[in-house]
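Quick check before the chapter quiz. The format below is the same one you will see on the exam, so make sure you can read both the input and the output lines.
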Amino acid sequence: MRIVFLTGGLGAGKSVAARFFEGRGTHVISADAIAQDALSPGSPVVAALIAEFGSGVAAGSTDSAGCPGGGGLGSDSLDGEGPAIDREALAALAFASPEAAARLNAIVHPKVVRTLAEELSRLTSLDDPPAVVVVEVPLLVGQSALMAFADAVLVIEAPLETRIARVRMRGIPEEDARRRIALQPSDQELSALATERIVNDSAEQKFFGRLEGFLDRLMAASSGCGGGGQDRRAGGDTRGEASGE
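Here is the expected output.
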């Protein structure tokens, strides 16, 4: 079973890539979904976040001006389940600075790592484990505990202005999008981790073709037909091929 970590900055297209792989029958795990599950009302992670960032991040709370802090699209109900997180309020604080983001990650990431380790162990123990598992991970830089699981790392890249435009289409203001991207690892930092990079800077079908080529090479390597051996690379750095330039 080969484990591929799929990552990229906000708006680069890693989630599109994850859906593509899933549509091709590849087993996909979302680290972000694990993190969202960790924010279930009443969980220890929620309690730790409220203790760290204050009651203003609790759903149904009020901010310093007396305005409701919960009830938005990103908040959870409090009904009978214990404290919940207003995700919009938490994001506003956590993305305010690198220090705040680090405080958030220090609370959430250990839970993500433990849950991911358990799921990968379960898959490995199956009588017929999947040949390839793709783990979609928002951020990898500085996450040595996560990197220990990876046989290959696929980084999705895109020009900054293209990413900004995509994020704005989600309803996120440009200023907010630029601030969030600035707080993330740079393309250079992500590239340093990559065993392969794919550029998502053109038509969707062209991007899908690049992903298809990567998956073909990966499946060949996992079956022993591609000369994979002990080489952790899925096929080398094909940035030039992938970019179409």
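If your answer matched, good. The domain at 1-26+130-245 is CATH 3.40.50.300 (Rossmann fold).
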